[in-house]
Amino acid sequence: MNRQRLRHLGLVSLAFLTVAQSYSEIANRVNASAHNELAWVTVVPEDEEFAVTAPISPTVRTYPVSSTDYPGHETILAHQEYGGYGDGLIFIIESYKAVRPQRLWANLLNFADKSAVFERDISFDGISARQYRSTYSSSYATYTRHIVRFATKEHVYLITLVTLEDTNPSVDRFLSSLRLRRPEDQTRFYSRAYEFILGYAFNPSQLTRRAIIVWKAEPFYTPQARAHQTAGTVTLEAILAEDGYVANITVTKELKDGLTEAAMDAARSIRFFPAEKDGRPVSQRIMLEYNFNVY
User: Fold this and answer.
1) Is the pLDDT of residue 2 over 80?
2) Tell me, what's the pLDDT at 105?
3) In 10 A of CB 9, how many CB atoms?
4) What is the pLDDT of residues 139-149, one digit of tens each?
5) For residues 13 and 220, is the Cβ–Cβ distance under 8 A?
6) Is 250 helix (H, G, I), strand (E, B) or coil?
7) What average pLDDT does this structure show over 226-247?
8) Which helix (H) or strand (E) holds 69?
């Protein structure tokens, strides 16, 4: 398929609501057996303690953090999210930096997926990690999440790996490459890619299977909006591209005080399995709404 992509730098934020998101004839299959050895890359982000091999360089989302230490809770010094899609695998790495990571670990476990079932222990470079598994099923889609949690000297890491199959060799390939950062590792800088594509995007009614959204951003409310008590809805039109990334975002209803930009950043953080038509991945049009309320 001939198409042209323009990418620019940016950040990400906020939460999402899709219109008419029903799916038909979900097939539990992604061709994960044909690995392209050259496509997988070593991921070594700045100011992180891990390195891993992934099917594609990740996009990055930076979360706002507070310097206030609430009683019984550990202050988060930095919070990053690295994510991407390739080789039938959606991966998300959440990084939390703290002075006392083990204390933060206990706080974060309160928000863990209670339906996840323990799979196995993982050990690497003196680190002990635990792997959990959960399956999400409905009349529209079935997909599997593998969650890996571990703490290092300065961070807590939560890794989520999502596949359409029950088992996918990309999961083991990703996890078997996980290690601590080494002195000789070169820092790799990653930034959010804004994507524009040329080519046809299908309406949902034209598809054999609609895109399966498995990861949605949480909302950020800007300090300016909070100061001005700004509330309302931002509405966007976008394309869920065949490569697994959100593209061609257009604003149809906006808000002031940075909330429109926050909604656009959130839309770019959506992770999904691309739509299919006649057995091949295709791009799908979608409408998104982001609601902002003052609490």
Assistant:
1) no
2) 83
3) 8
4) 567 999 999 99
5) yes
6) strand
7) 95
8) none
Dihedral sign, CA of 221, 225, 230, 234?
Answer: negative
Task: Give the dihedral of Cα atoms 222, 223, 228, 232; nearest 10 deg.
Answer: 20
Task: Give the span between the Cα atoms of 252 and 289, in whole angstroms.
Answer: 10
Residue 99 burial by CB count (10 A; 0-12/13-18/19+): exposed, middle or buried?
exposed
- Which domains does the chain carry? 5-24+192-292 (3.30.2420.10), 41-180 (3.40.1000)
Amino acid at residue number 97: K
b or e along 246-257 (b: 16 or more beta carbons within 10 Å of the residue's beta carbon)? Answer: bbbbeeeeebeb
Q: Which long-range contacts (CB under 8 A, 24 or more apart) does 31-36 make?
A: 31/88, 32/87, 32/88, 32/89, 32/163, 32/165, 32/168, 32/169, 32/170, 33/169, 35/87, 35/169, 35/170, 35/173, 36/87
Q: Residue 11 is encoded by which pair of tokens?
A: 């950040």
Mapped to the 3 state alphabet, what secondary structure does 6-42 carry?
A: EEEEECCCCCCEECCCCCCCCCCCCCCCCCCCCCCEE
Q: Which two tokens stand for residue 256?
A: 């002031």
For residue 275 the two structure tokens come to 């739509």
H helices of 152-287, where?
Answer: 169-176, 223-228, 259-268
Calpha distance 241→93 (Å, rounded):
22
Which run of H or E residues covers position 193?
Answer: strand 192-197
Query: The whole model's pTM is what?
Result: 0.82
**Strand partners for 137:** 142
Rounded Cα gap, residues 75 and 100, in angstroms? 9
List the structure tokens of 279.
Answer: 């057995």
Task: Answer positive or negative: Cα dihedral of 21, 22, 25, 27.
Answer: positive
Phi–psi pair at 189, nearest 5 degrees:
-95, 130
